[in-house]
Amino acid sequence: MRMKNKLLLVLASAFILSACGNEEDIAGVEDDPIVEGFEEVIAHFPYTYPLIGVETEEQLDRRVIGVTINNHPAARPQSGIGDADLVYEVLSEGEITRLVALFHSELPERVGPVRSSRPYHIDLVNGYNGMLVTHGWSPEAERLLNGGRADFLNGLHYDGTLFQRSNERKAPHNSYITFDNILQGLDSRGYELIGSVPNLSFYENEDVPLEGAEAKEIEVNYLNRNYVQYVFDDETGLYERFNDEEQTIDYDTEEPIRIANLLIVETEHRILDNEGRRAIDLISGGDAILFQDGIASTVKWENRNGQIMAVENGELIRLKPGQTWINIVPTSPGIEASVTY
């Protein structure tokens, strides 16, 4: 978890010792029971990043940017996802999932491979007053975006200019864009880059009072073809992600993805056409499992202002500061059949 904006001030007894004039004074200080090694003091900053719950000295007024990221085996590992505040994982066609990564607190140098969007991707980004970056679209997503449903930047219009193809991978798994180019492209389209961001609810510290069953190894089965695993690290207090037993890392930094909150939700998926495109219900709510600190809690999910939230008895459940992933699985076969831990 990225805590670089929290400042740890250490007041050591060595500073006290340096003020003493001779060895006798030093010995006296060392024997003084009042001086007991180190005292940790955390300096609190006036602002908090709204989607990860980490304190910061800067107040961000930029809007969220959501990017549809390819999760085909030929596209892994991806670039930039380690800096996302929140990542949705949801089926596209077939059994392969696509990632919708929301960026706000950190902007990586580049992100990708970028892939085409679906109507439910638009809804997920709109829930955070975000702007969508995509490379391609389904016919319905094209209609919605051209009709003004969301502010967007499409690689179909900027292939080879703002979007660049990597020689290391084959199309359509090789489209990348830098965040400098994202901001340039959105600005050139006349969109307002400054705007409000909803504040998620977090625990005040890293001690999570979640109750439930132990869950240190989790597997999410997407239609018996695509397997996603999460393994809890006792040292970091975070989950690490694997896809088909290959660890999820950021391609550019080679750092593993570390997740503070994992929410798995069940909802209706409906096949729309011969291409296997889907309609996915993001409104009705339903069964969910929330994983924090190696504990699984059976909860419900609700759509509140376009955001998928974990609730219990109608009350929002707070998140642990850090990155959140939300895996969306179909009601058939259902969450009980799709998730093991």
UniProtKB/TrEMBL annotation:
Keyword Transit peptide listed: no
Superkingdom, natural source: Bacteria
Domain DUF3048: residue ranges: 54-191, 218-326
Pfam families per record: DUF3048 (PF11258), DUF3048_C (PF17479)
Gene3D superfamilies: YerB-like
InterPro entries: DUF3048_C (IPR035328), DUF3048_N (IPR021416), YerB-like_sf (IPR023158)
PROSITE patterns linked: PROKAR_LIPOPROTEIN (PS51257)
Protein name: DUF3048 family protein
